[in-house]
Amino acid sequence: YKVLKAFEEQGRFIEVTVYAIDIDAEPHHATYFGVGSEGTLVAFDGQKEIVRVVGDASPETIEILLRSTMN
């Protein structure tokens, strides 16, 4: 989440909508999106999942994921 906040503060990827789900507080959302653990990032184009990353929250990986949503 810190990386996403830093990108936002830098004015980067402002055209990308980001949702954060607390899987403990909102298990129904985690189930709906097939998220089984913390550190799961999912990118969508509309309703279609295009990229899923589990366990790699490096700034580089997050940037690649965000870029993948921009056509």
Detailed description of the structure:
By secondary structure, the chain is α+β, with helices and mostly antiparallel strands. 35% of the residues lie in helices and 18% in strands. It is built from 3 helices and 2 strands, in the order ααββα. The protein has helices at residues 2-9, 27-33, 59-68, and strands at 40-45, 48-54. It has a two-stranded antiparallel ribbon with strand order 1-2. A hairpin with a 2-residue loop joins strand 1 (40-45) and strand 2 (48-54). The longest helix is centred in the C-terminal third of the chain and has 10 residues, at 59-68. It starts with a helix and ends with a helix. The model has no long low-confidence stretch (mean pLDDT 89).
Main features:
single chain, 71 residues, alpha+beta, 3 helices, 35% helix, globular
H/E topology pattern: HHEEH
Contiguous helical run count = 3
Shape: globular
CA radius of gyration:
12 Å
Oligomer: single chain
Low-confidence stretches are none
In which order are the strands of the major sheet placed? 1-2
Q: Span from first to last CA?
A: 23 Å
Whole-number mean pLDDT: 89
Helix content: 25-40%
In total, the number of strands is: 2
Overall SS class? alpha+beta
Largest sheet: 2 strands, antiparallel
Report the β-strand fraction as a percent range: 15-25%
Topology:
Elements: H1 2-9, H2 27-33, E1 40-45, E2 48-54, H3 59-68
Antiparallel strand pairs: 1-2
Quick take:
Helices cover 35% and strands 18% of the residues. It is of the alpha+beta class.
